[in-house]
């Protein structure tokens, strides 16, 4: 049925684009094979069914971006056409940086099982004037940036953000041994330091929350309801996660880190000192959420100072061990 509808819409679009004068519903009905086969009888019921189908098809084409004009003739008959000049995009020019960004975005969709849509979008850009010598997939430097999308929750959450649909999923916190159900109104997805995060309104807690997709277990379920909280104009997922990880900290923490381990911590370090015996001493920014981040490195990290950070890390490790 989906294929039949797509073929019917394509034929309708070709008729509207190929005519030099407005075509009436009757002319379109007699010209498009799908309409002819479906509505062979000319009784009133068939006419009503055709009118409803035609209006739906016309609305679907307009939602796809086709500009359809409605023209009334001198005798009052309504006709339709899609002028080519109204449905032609201007030439698209991309510099190297823009093409690289486009290629990176397309690779994200490829990894998210949306390769067909990404390929189709690039083909449309080619048809609209993207130069053949500009390859959005081609690397533009010695280091090619990549955004991993391995989490199964990415695609359903991306679609839920787009469609403004509440979702429900099981989420395991860094300090918890077992996941808990969450009811969320999803706002936006963003990648930060190689991990994807979802920002949204947590209905159970009545406040904005950020969730790491790798901690979502099981299937993301959609809920047939509307949002109850307003969506902010700007959703700052990156800034929220950065503050939780201590990026905006005004204090410092002293830790021991095994040699050749914890490279994200080394990248944040303001000072590094070799201790020998396979350990280094690092000074890193200390802010809210640093304890949860340090726990992820397990036995490779030992907190030396301050005492409250050490106690928080120990408490989190004990909670995981008890689970």
Question: Can you describe this structure?
Answer:
The protein is of the alpha+beta class and 323 residues long. It is built from eleven helices and eleven strands. It has helices at residues 2-18, 25-31, 33-38, 44-63, 96-111, 115-128, 154-163, 237-244, 263-268, 290-295, 307-322; strands spanning 69-72, 78-81, 167-171, 180-192, 195-202, 207-212, 216-222, 251-258, 271-276, 279-286, 301-305. The protein has a five-stranded antiparallel beta sheet. It has a four-stranded antiparallel beta sheet with strand order 9-10-8-11. Strands 1-2 form a two-stranded antiparallel ribbon. Helix 1 packs across helix 4 (44-63) and helix 5 (96-111) runs antiparallel to helix 6 (115-128). The protein is elongated. The model is unreliable at 140-144 (pLDDT under 50).
SSE diagram, text form:
Blueprint: H1 2-18, H2 25-31, H3 33-38, H4 44-63, E1 69-72, E2 78-81, H5 96-111, H6 115-128, H7 154-163, E3 167-171, E4 180-192, E5 195-202, E6 207-212, E7 216-222, H8 237-244, E8 251-258, H9 263-268, E9 271-276, E10 279-286, H10 290-295, E11 301-305, H11 307-322
Antiparallel strand pairs: 1-2, 3-4, 3-7, 4-5, 5-6, 8-10, 8-11, 9-10
For the structure shown, list the relevant keywords.
single chain; about 325 residues; alpha+beta; five-stranded antiparallel beta sheet; four-stranded antiparallel beta sheet; about 40% helix
């Amino acid at each position: 049925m989906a294929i039949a509808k797509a073929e019917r819409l394509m034929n309708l679009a070709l008729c509207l684009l190929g005519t030099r004068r407005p075509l009436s519903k009757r002319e379109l009905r007699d010209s498009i094979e799908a309409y002819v086969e479906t509505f062979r009888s000319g009784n009133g019921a068939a006419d009503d069914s055709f009118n409803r189908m035609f209006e739906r098809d016309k609305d679907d084409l307009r939602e796809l971006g086709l500009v359809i004009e409605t023209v009334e003739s001198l005798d009052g008959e309504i006709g339709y056409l899609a002028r080519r000049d109204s449905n032609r995009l201007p030439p698209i020019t991309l510099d190297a940086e823009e093409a690289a960004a486009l290629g990176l975005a397309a690779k994200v969709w490829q990894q998210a099982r949306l390769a067909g849509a990404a390929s189709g979008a690039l083909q449309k850009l080619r048809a609209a004037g993207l130069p053949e010598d500009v390859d959005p997939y081609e690397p533009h430097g010695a280091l090619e940036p990549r955004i991993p999308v391995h989490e199964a929750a990415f695609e359903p959450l991306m679609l839920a953000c787009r469609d403004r649909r509440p979702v429900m999923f099981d989420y395991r916190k860094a300090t918890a041994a077992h996941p808990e159900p969450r009811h969320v109104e999803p706002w936006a997805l963003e990648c930060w330091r190689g991990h994807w995060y979802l920002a949204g309104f947590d209905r159970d807690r009545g406040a904005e929350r950020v969730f790491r997709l790798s901690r979502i277990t099981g299937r993301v379920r959609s809920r047939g309801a509307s949002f109850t909280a307003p969506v902010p104009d700007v959703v700052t997922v990156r800034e929220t996660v950065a503050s939780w990880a201590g990026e905006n900290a005004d204090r410092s923490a002293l830790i021991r880190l095994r040699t050749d381990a914890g490279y994200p911590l080394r990248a944040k370090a303001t000072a590094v000192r070799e201790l020998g015996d396979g350990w280094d001493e690092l000074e890193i920014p200390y802010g809210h959420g640093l304890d949860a981040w340090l726990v992820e490195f397990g036995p490779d990290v030992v907190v030396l100072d301050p005492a409250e950070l050490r106690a928080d890390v120990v408490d989190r490790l004990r909670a995981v061990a008890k689970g």
